[in-house]
Inverse folding.
């Protein structure tokens, strides 16, 4: 459990890291914007690296909750449930993700494989792949591992190209391709 001050620091850090980039935001700015001292920030998180990892973990928790809520509240047939992840991405992008995937952005900024944020990023992508595989398997479709990998690549590509405005309605386009893949399976 985080103290109210630590929650505020985490909230502010998340907003600043996502909007400006991890390296562009220093602990001085986070502390000032949060209304705490740097000492409080370090007492609660230990280091900027640990704060980055915590920010990524919190964002991952929110993403997972969003995806699960979108899929689980639907009454779609099992064969269509994997497509609901694209719906979740579309609403997430519209409300939480205008600069693209926070995990891809962070990965680009964290070249050190030992950075604690890198494991959070990898966990987020592994979870999504496993969830897609489970949805495909529940639908009884052929080769769930291969199909889940294809769906993940479509989701990730749509996130990046959509954030760059390279492909209009990238998520919808990716969902259409995913539908074709699911129909063929």
């Amino acid at each position: 459990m985080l103290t109210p001050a630590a929650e505020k620091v985490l909230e502010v850090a998340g907003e600043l890291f996502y909007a400006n980039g991890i390296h562009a935001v220093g602990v001085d700015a986070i502390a000032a914007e949060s209304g705490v001292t740097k000492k409080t920030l370090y007492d609660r998180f230990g280091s900027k690296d640990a704060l980055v990892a915590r920010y990524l973990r919190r964002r991952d928790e929110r993403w997972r909750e969003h995806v699960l809520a979108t899929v689980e509240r639907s009454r779609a047939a099992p064969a269509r449930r994997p497509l609901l992840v694209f719906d979740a991405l579309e609403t997430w992008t519209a409300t939480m993700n205008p600069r693209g995937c926070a995990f891809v952005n962070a990965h680009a900024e964290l070249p050190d494989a030992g950075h604690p944020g890198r494991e959070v990023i990898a966990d987020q992508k592994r979870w999504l792949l496993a969830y897609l595989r489970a949805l495909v398997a529940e639908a009884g479709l052929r080769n769930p591992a291969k199909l889940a990998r294809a769906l993940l690549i479509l989701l990730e590509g749509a996130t990046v190209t959509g954030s760059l405005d390279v492909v209009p309605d990238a998520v919808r386009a990716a969902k259409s391709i995913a539908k074709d893949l699911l129909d063929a399976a």
In short: The domain at 1-46 is CATH 1.10.10.60 (Arc Repressor Mutant, subunit A). The longest helix spans residues 48-72.
